[in-house]
Amino acid sequence: xxxxxxxxxxxxxxxxxxxxxxxxxxxxxxxxxxxxxxxxxxxxxxxxxxxxxxxxxxxxxxxxxxxxxxxxxxxxxxxxxxxxxxxxxxxxxxxxxxxxxxxxxxxxxxxxxxxx
Length: 116
Hints:
mainly alpha
């Protein structure tokens, strides 16, 4: 995800995390937070759409297709990271996850190379 910072951030990760966290702020302790899935998906879709428009504007300004692909990969890193943080904080929280509770996220192909 470091290349996002070098190329210009097209997604505000802190704001995205805050929007996701706000969904569950008013839920009583012990209540299911998975019911917010449609709202989580809508927030992530909005971030993806906004980021794509921003990447397109940057591409038109600088003309670099490779840089644009790297920006889009960085954007997807941010969205996947935000979803991971939401899931591990709110849906399946665990202070000390066992080996069966750990999650791995792996990217392959163009996205794995950072050129989505």
